[in-house]
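Data card: per-record layout.
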Amino acid sequence: MGARTGAQFLQRIREHPRDLWHRGERVEDPTTHPAFARGLRSMARLYDLQWERADECLYDSPSSGEKVGLSFLIPRSAEDVQRVSRMMKIWADVHFGFMGRTPDYLNRAITYYASGADFLGEKEPAFAEHMRRYYEYLRENDLCLTHTLIHPQANRAVGPSKQADPYLAARVVKETDGGIVIRGARMLATLPAVDEIMVFPSTLLRNTEEDAPYCYAVGIPCDTPGLRFLCRETLDYGRSPFDHPLGSRFDEIDAVVIFHDVFVPWERVFIYRDVERANQAYAATGAIVGMAHQVVVKNIAKTEFFLGLASLIVDAIGIEGFQHVQEKVAEIWIYLETMKALLRAAEADAHEDAFGAFRPAWPPLDAARNLYMRWYPRIVEIIQQLSASGIIATVTEEDMKNPELIEDIRRYFQAARAEAYDRIPLFRLAWDAALSAFAGRQVQYERFYFGDPVRIAGVIFQKHDRTPYMEKVREFLKQMKEEAFAQAEEARP
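The structure for this 493-residue chain is written out next.
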């Protein structure tokens, strides 16, 4: 079929009903349900955009010759890496970085998994072929993935096999000639109302026999029998997009995924009972690099939005003369330029990996993703501080349209450089970006985007080689010591 349009994206969701639950009711058609419909329409907009800007967003499939999404491209040069980056920025600019799981995120992961499939097949060659075929299936049909990779947070002091219920965390119940059966739960699947779900392997498993049933990587349709999505409450309250400009457009919904003895055919299994391979798969195949590349592009779009928002607030209420205001706006600008520089460094130093694909350099991406987990809450705090009580003291679309209130609103909601009917939309946007429930979810999401920041910092400490810098200091210490003793010798009578 090749690259899809927005209408085709929505139509396939309607044609494949899944076991999807929201606020105690089963959702029969997410494309019309108030909790999901507007977010899915925003996603559909991205599929339309790839055809509107086909030269920048599509390429010719190597197998079918059809136009397919550029986010599925296996880069064969540094220029290819930059080409994919530009495509991802086109999408990110549409949602200002507020949609964290647009299709390109997992497309990049699956693309690198397919490119590095030989790693998956070192012990079981069939797994490599399974991944290549799955990637091609996704690419040729332009399917959208959600994913899940962590276990439910019951007793975090012990691993999945030591929980009170051994089937709390999703595990393999049995094997058959045709595949495996999974029972238990996983979290946190963002965007559950799409085509397929990739159940990534955990990277924290211990290499023991009791942990082996929890070790697998599979990809299955979201309408697979026995697969249930239990969603959090939507942040699209069905209100006016004027009152909730971000939540009404960009809420993706998150879900806990429950496996009620879900059968997975062997051709959809990519890792199984191989803890060492599961723990290494992200890094070895380049999947983590592909995901981080997309995330940094998304974060640049998001920071550009906040810099523009902060600057408009400052201009509207005339506070640009205060030095602490200048400092806060400059802080966001510094974050933005740092992210852009790290992205440019990663792309400029792109290199060919062991499987013939080009990857952006990992250290700049690793630095960028770790910094943003700490920076984003601060960016939101700056909007709160600049807006002060103005972010709370605002009115709704209904108020603005009520003839009895118009004169009061025009008089008492004006700003230094903005009429009331220009100031109010600005502060409604600031509220939804920095203070609403949607904003709070965004902060929590960015804070834990790649997992526990402390654990990730530990990985940086362990994995990134600091030896060259240590040697520089050791050489200087050696020089200090030699000079000191030489001076002591000279001073002796």
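Known properties of this structure: The chain has a mean pLDDT of 95. The CA atoms of residues 214 and 227 lie 17 Å apart.

See the next section for split statistics.
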